[in-house]
Amino acid sequence: MTMPEEDVRLFHRLLFALLDWANTRYAIAPGAPKLAGGASVYSPDSFRIGRHVWTHPAVIGEYLKNARDLSDGEREIVLGWERVVFDRFLVERHLKKGTAMLSLRSPDVYLVSGVEREWEDMVPSLPVLIEAGLIPFRDRIVCGGPYRLFPASFGGGCRYGFREDYREAGQKNRIFQSL
Q1: Low pLDDT (below 70) residues in the chain
Q2: What pLDDT score was predicted for residue 151?
Q3: Domain at 128, CATH number
Q4: Cα-Cα-Cα-Cα dihedral of 39, 41, 43, 44, to 10°?
Q5: Are residues 145 and 50 in contact, defined by beta-carbon separation less than 8 angstroms?
Q6: Can you say whether residue 71 is alpha, beta or left, with left for phi > 0 and alpha for psi between -120 and 50 degrees?
Q7: Mind listing the pLDDT tens digit for each residue in 12-41?
Q8: Quick one: how far is CA 29 from the chain centroid?
Q9: pLDDT digits (tens, 9 = 90+) for 136-154
Q10: Which structural domain, as residue segments, surrounds residue 13?
Q11: β-sheet bridge partners, residue 134
């Protein structure tokens, strides 16, 4: 499941403005090119900037105090990003409603939608370990920009355990489609 093109443009404009502002304000990756100017969202600098914002969600409130060019609706979207879940996740399965990501710090599972590409296209071989910030956008959960993929392989026993963790999360109503 991906977003309509209009939402993709809005998401990128809001996200890139926040990350560029945070990098300028906090010098997280000095000299890194502006994301709004077309820099790669998949660079190590972009990941460092995103990681800083998602692990310090108060940055979002500070940004909103200084952002004069946002509409009320856009402010509401960005304010929702304070509910970020930054963690390492096990990408366990792809479903119609989203890709199931199991938190490594809690019993929670998040169904994450792609922004402009399906997760199944980005991460076809499962399970995979990633580090990312999951944020709300409209009525879904998406990855808040850059994420880090960890090279790892899991044997049959681990895979069975991941499936059981997913099943148990479902039984305990710990599978989330929104934040």
Answers
A1: none
A2: 86
A3: 2.40.50
A4: 120
A5: yes
A6: beta
A7: 999 999 999 999 999 999 999 998 878 777
A8: 20
A9: 999 999 999 889 999 889 9
A10: 5-82
A11: 85, 143
Residues 35 and 101 in one domain: no
Whether 71 and 132 map to the same domain: the answer is no
Phi, then psi, of 117 in degrees rounded to 5: -135, 150
**Side chain identity at residue 18, one-letter code:** L
Distance of CA 173 to the CA centre of its chain: 21
Distance CA 3, CA 21 (A): 25
Question: How are beta strands 175-176 and 109-113 bridged, if at all?
Answer: parallel
The reply to whether 141 and 77 lie within a common domain is no
Task: Please list the residues that pair with 130 across neighbouring strands.
Answer: 89, 149
Residue type, 54: W
Q: Please indicate, yes or no, whether residues 105 and 125 belong to a single structural domain of this protein.
A: yes
Pick from 159, 150, 135: nearest CA to 50: 135
